[in-house]
């Protein structure tokens, strides 16, 4: 598998992210949905990666700079047929290493609190993330779980 920075200009990643947004909308109440759309992911404070296996796009993830020391994990997604096959672990390890290389000392994230998101929360726990209070502009939300780790 190969991980590369993606400029979000291709139709395949646009469709992949659209599937992600549609899935999140079907699971999470609109007021609790924090997934970024394509335009928001193109912001200068966001670095976005895709992971391909052969010619197949199998996952993506990003970090958004919050300040000089703190970044947020965004848009982690694995193609459903490839879930629990190591894609997310490989990508999250890469994101943590890149965030460290970029000079961040803290990495945080927001994910869902219901059962659907349990595998994601377990993955983040495995990589040293701990539950925390809302950060940045987030507010307490029963549909959200907030996690952070130092780098």
Shape: globular
Percent in helix: 25-40%
Number of β-strand runs: 7
Q: Main beta sheet, described?
A: 7 strands, mixed
Can you walk through the features of this model?
The protein has a domain at 2-106: Aminopeptidase. The longest helix has 17 residues, at 11-27. Strand 2 (46-53) and strand 3 form a beta hairpin. The chain is globular, with a radius of gyration of 14 Å. It has a seven-stranded mixed β-sheet, with helices on both faces. It has four helices and seven strands; from the N terminus they run βααβββαβαββ. With 151 residues, the protein is α+β, with helices and mostly antiparallel strands. It is 30% helix and 31% strand.
């Amino acid at each position: 598998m190969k991980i590369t920075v993606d400029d979000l200009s291709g139709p395949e990643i646009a469709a992949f992210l659209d599937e992600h947004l549609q899935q999140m909308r079907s699971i999470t109440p609109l007021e609790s949905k924090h997934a970024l759309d394509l335009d928001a992911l193109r912001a200068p404070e966001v670095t976005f990666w895709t992971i391909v296996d052969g010619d197949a796009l199998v996952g993506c993830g990003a970090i958004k700079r919050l300040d000089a020391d703190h970044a947020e994990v965004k848009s982690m997604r694995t193609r459903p047929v490839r879930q629990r096959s190591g894609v997310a672990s490989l990508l999250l390890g890469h994101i943590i290493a890149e965030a460290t290389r970029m000079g961040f000392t803290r990495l945080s994230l927001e994910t869902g609190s219901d059962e659907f998101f349990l595998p994601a929360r377990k993955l983040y726990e495995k990589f040293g993330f701990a539950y925390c209070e809302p950060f940045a502009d987030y507010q307490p939300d029963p549909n959200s779980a907030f996690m952070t780790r130092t780098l």
